[in-house]
Every structure is written in structure tokens, then in C-alpha cells.
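Supplementary Methods S3. Input chains for the assembly prediction are listed below.
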Amino acid sequence: MSIFSFPQLSMRFFPIWRRNYMVWQKMAGPSILGHLADPVIYMLGLGYGLGGMLPQIGGMSYIAFLSAGTVCYSTMNSASFEALYSGFARMQEQRTWEAILNTPVTLDDVVLSEITWSASKSLLSGMAVLMVIWVLGLSHSVLSLWVIPLSLLVGLCFAATGLIVTALAPGYEFFMYYFTLVITPMTLLCGVFFPIEELPIALQGVSAALPLTHAVSLARPLLNGAIPKHVATDIAVLLAYAFAGFYISLVIFRKRLAQ
Amino acid sequence: MNSVIVAENIVKLYGGQRVVDGISLEVSRGECFGLLGPNGAGKTTTLRMLLGLIAPDGGNISMLGHPVPAAAREARIRVGVVPQMDNLDPDFTVSENLIVYGRYFGMRDDEIRARLPGLLEFANLAHKKDAKVPALSGGMKRRLTLARALVNDPDLIFLDEPTTGLDPQARHLIWQRLRELTARGKTLLLTTHFMDEAERLCHRLAVMDNGRIISLGTPRELIAGNIEPQVVEVYGEAASNWARAHAANHAERFEVSGESVFCYVNDAKDLLHELQQHPELSYVHRPANLEDVFLKLTGREMRE
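Predicted C-alpha cells for the full assembly:
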């Protein structure tokens, strides 16, 4: 079997997912608080503070506009932090992967478990923000329920791409590059805080290639009670990032762990 | 099928260097087989290849009748591993560690729970079953790692330096448990650089250096085949001068190491008589052991 072999998927990833869930259960309180506090502060602070000075955007209040962006960037962050920091701890520091790989479980299963687990954290984060949106009365549409599966998809996308960075990382410090050079610019270029149309044309092109743009482009109409315009394209881009991230990270992990 | 592991001429290259350079070995059912060697001899790399965790660059391996690495996953269903460094789950209790690990073998929770009391008793950890891992001593962690390696009731158990870093009491308890496992018909393959451990536990040993097996046999065979049966160690400031002048006349072979002289003899009578004429020297007369063989085969210089 070459390091470039296509991933062999099996249900053997599930006991590892359950292991991560058991660890999470032990600190569920602080974890859920974290998923809620950050987006609530952003939405209240920016949404009301900044929103008070702004006119409506595309027929909605600024805080309603911002809430769709917040769902997406929160789910992106949840998966990214889990796949980078916690994933690296499981691989390197705690040697959890080493213990698991001595059993009849393969690296392909382990990487799949990391992606699905990180995406599960995104799902939780997405649901937490959606609850806040409902409580604040920012969305009244049944379509907003589609944000739940969307959170999972966004999670799969950013978990898989984040794992490429984990696979390459010599240590935790390395992750600053990813957050500073990829995640932060993505947050500012993908329509979370303001419409992409406000950007210079060249940057709009960059924005169109970034996955978060497509997440926001789905979430915003759904929360506003409308069907998104480019459903197929948006989903295809998110899935493409997820599959490419899975395959590329797996190849690098295979090479790394063969040492 | 009496051979549990068969390795034929396996090779592993790292950056052009032959870390494992053509190793062949066969381990039979119920045997405790030891891989002995200084640091960097290639023991752990050999172990990882046998387990199918890394692919050899040459040679053939079969484990429990399965070709490795092609069907390593199937073979590992019947294998337990005690790694060199602890990798227990620090967030879990003793029992949770065993349950979670059993699930990786596809075992149902009720199957694992049925095995828990026996495993905890074997590891002397019944009283600690709800303790979290960071609260355990080094010896307890090793025992838990051993119990975890047995959760799937394996036929073959790999142990990579199972007692490194443990105090004498903890080591003796591990040794006792490992002997119980061989008595139950389990096959053990262990690496160690403790000669007393190898001599006590292993039915057969392979001494490795520079990626090759340089000697293979039972502990007695290794001693008889490589070295004179008696050793006289001579100490003191005058020892090296005495050795240069006289040792060759009374011993088949001798080595000077700092202020000690190791004399290897078939019959010590003449040498002991000579030493009695030199009250300034102190000496110990003892049978040759595995450590003497090891140092003869791999040299006295430090490996770092």
C-alpha cells in the first residue's frame, strides 16, 4: 500500500469518536459556555453597537446580517481549534494515536475519526449560535433549521483542511501561522461582517475561492427565510475542500508516522 | 502452525541508512523471545515492522498466519502491545481506559465489562479501578498498560522495554505477571537492555547490533557459545598494571575498563592462586552471565 492510496473507510472510526466524546463529556460545561459566550459577545457588541450606526443591509438589520456570519465563523473556529490543537495533542503529546494504531484500527480510521469529531464540535457550536439567534428573535424561518446540517458540513470542511496543518506541524507554535495567515483573513474576506460586494474586485475573486464565503452564502438566506441562490455550487465547494483536506492530510500523516 | 512470528531477511532504510539490515527470526507458540541490544540497535524498528506499523523495505513477515503488513490489521486482532512509553488516556479512570481500548478491537461493552475484574486483578489494580491515570504510580501505569494489552485476550504480546524506569519491586511484579502469561500459553516478544530481565524471562534471545542479529539462542547457549564460563573481576588502583604484566599468563582473555579488569577463564584455580599473592588487589569470582556476553558482542563504548 502506497502513501497515496485512496482512504479505506470503515466504521472502525466510531469507537475513537466515542472516546473523544467521553473526554468531552467530562468538561462539557466549560465547553458549551465557550461555544455560547464568544458568538453572543460578538453579536451583541458589534450587532447592536455597530449596527446602531448602520442602515439595513439587503433588507435586514445589521445584527441579523451579522448573525449568519457568526454561525459560520463559529463553526469554522470550533472545527479548526479541535483539529489543530486537540488533534495535535492526541497525535503527539498524549500518544493516543500510537495506542490506537496498535489495535486493529488503521491510520485512515484515526484521521476519519478526527474529522468527524471536529465536525461534531462544529455541529454543537452551530446549534448553540442558532439558539442564541432564535432567543434574540433574529430569525423566524423554519428554513433556519437547515443551519444545523450546514454546521456539520462546514465542520467537515474546516476539520479536514485544518488537519493538513496538524500533519505538517512540528509543534503548537506552528498553528499561529494558520490562524494569522488563513483563518483571520478568511473571517474578514468572506462576508461575515460586511457584504463581499464592498471589497475591491480582485479581493472578491479571492473571496469566491474561500470555503467560508460559500458557508455564509448558504447560511444568510436560510436564516432570512429564503432559499440560497447557488446551493449546488456552495455545497460542492465545501465538500471539495473536505475531501481534498482528508486525502492530503492522510497522505502527510502516513508519511509522518512511517518515520 | 507452530510459528507465531516468521521474519525472513527484513530490511528497513532511513535516509539511506540500514537501520534494520537483514533480520530473520522465528518465534514459536508459548515462547518468550527477547530482542536484546544497545540503544539504536534497531529493536523498536524491528518490533514496529513485525506489527505492521511500518512497511519493511525488503524481506517477508508473517504474524499469526497473516502476511504483514498486507493483513496486519487482521493479525492485530489477536495481538496485544505494551509500548515503550506510556500512552494511557490521562482523562480516563483505570476502568475507562480498559473499556475504551477494548472497543478498538470491535468488542461489545458487555464483553469488555465481563473481562474487567480479571484484568484488574491480574494488574493488582482492583482497588484503583476508579482512579484517574495521573494519580497512579509508575508501576501502576505499567501494570495498567499490560492489562490494556490483554483486553482482547491476545495470543501474542509485544512488550517494548516493559520495565524501563521502574523500581525493583515494580519490576519483580511485572516479571511475575509475564511468567504467568507464558505459563498460560501466550507468546511474548520483548525488547530489553536489562540482562537480568532477559536471562530470567526469555526462553530464547537474539542479540542485535547495528541492525543485525549477531547471536541467537537460549541464555545458556549464548553464554556457552560466546564466552568462557568463569569471570574474575579485579579492582583497585594497581589492577591495570597487574593486568598488563600478568593477566595474560593466567586468563584466556582479559579486558581493562578503568580501574577494573575482567578476566575470562575456563578454570579460575590458577588465577585465584595468583591473585592471593597480591593483597593490594581485590577481586570477585563469579560465573559468566549474559551481560558479559552482551558486552563482548557489542563492545564497551557508550551508545548515544
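Chain A has a mean pLDDT of 94. Chain A is about 75% helix and 0% strand.
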